[in-house]
Amino acid sequence: MKILSGKLEQLLLRAVDNEEIAGANILVLKEGKEIAYAQAGYADRAEKKSYERDTIARLYSMTKPVTAAAAMLLMERGLLDPGAFVEDFLPGFHDMSVAGGKGRTPARRPMRICELLNMTSGLVYGGDTTSISSIETEKLFHKVDERLPGKDALTTVEIANSLGLLPLAFHPGDSWQYGTSADVLGAVIEVICGVPFGEFLKEEFFNPLGMQDTGFYVPQEKQGRLAKVYERTADGLVLYTGSHLGISNVMKQPPAFESGGAGLASTLDDYEKFASMLLAGGSYAGGQLMKPQTVRYMTQAKLLPWQQDVLERGWDGLGGHTYANLLRIVTQPGKTCMMTTEGEYGWDGWLGAYFANSPKDKLTMLLTFQLKDAGTTSLTRRLKNAVWSELC
């Protein structure tokens, strides 16, 4: 639909002109067929390098659905039990403690793998200066970032075990909070499979789907396609070169830490193959990567009532959604702050990558840009509303 592509392009161009973003691209598919594509702006403003269809973007938290799919694959093979205890695979999770007003108290019970999948583990991210758990997590990732360039960089399993030694924000299962659960899940998958997490993803998903530009680093021959990251300041957009959550900004070499929560880079067309596989019930190009029942389990789960209450009160913008298996899932479209459909699922990333699958509408939308502290922005919602009003 040329009309929709033109509308999306105009929205992107306006965002670039207003310095909301440096550059972006967006892709929309309906019933497995491309309906609209648009791009605008720059992947590198200094070099005047356009943001193209094959531009590589850091996914950050849009890595999480891939990690969830890996766990689902092991479930259907009988190799991963969501009810199993994390400490059975990672010794750092023995004798966990919970932060409290008078110091640490022992966790009432061990953490289960399903609590990693649903963010009900008690693990958190840094950034909250009022939370001991968050402060300690911030310190750990500062250490990880400092050691990124060296030979003593911490590995996937080492970081997961270190997280297990930190005080939890709450007893496992008692509440909901977004955090490092997916990083720990990636380490659990690595232990179960006996191969590096990235190798497992490449063998089971990236190679079969033809996702040749997706991985935990960007090889030298593709570095020219990796978009620069920008941040908003009082003086407009400026280049951001920092590393975050143990992920190197330049992504030039295979990392010791293959972050299941934030580590992948990819292109719009590559991630579309993964999203389309899920929307097709696990099938792609005549092959069956996941069983249909597995995909239904992954994309139709819900939080327990008390966990759902915390999500709705604590995360602005997720009204009308539940969260399970590292996905946001629409349960009540009338409560959402943008046009949605019941059963729609997906997630976004720290730098602005976004995807949504709507099984009822047979519709997929994918968006990438590289803006510090972005997540789901006003631009994201405006673009999605334009798509959903036209196609749903």
Question: How would you summarize the topology of this molecule?
Answer:
Elements: H1 2-17, E1 23-30, E2 33-44, E3 49-50, E4 57-58, H2 64-76, E5 97-100, E6 103-106, H3 113-117, H4 132-146, H5 156-164, H6 181-193, H7 197-209, E7 229-233, E8 236-240, E9 265-266, H8 268-279, E10 283-284, E11 287-288, H9 292-299, H10 305-314, E12 321-324, E13 327-330, E14 345-348, E15 354-358, E16 363-368, H11 378-391
Pfam family, one: Beta-lactamase
InterPro entries: Beta-lactam-related, Beta-lactam/transpept-like, Diverse_Enzym_Activities
Protein name: CubicO group peptidase (Beta-lactamase class C family)
Characteristics:
alpha+beta; Diverse_Enzym_Activities; two-stranded antiparallel sheet; 392 residues; Beta-lactamase; 11 helices; CubicO group peptidase (Beta-lactamase class C family); Beta-lactam/transpept-like; single chain; Beta-lactam-related; eight-stranded antiparallel beta sheet
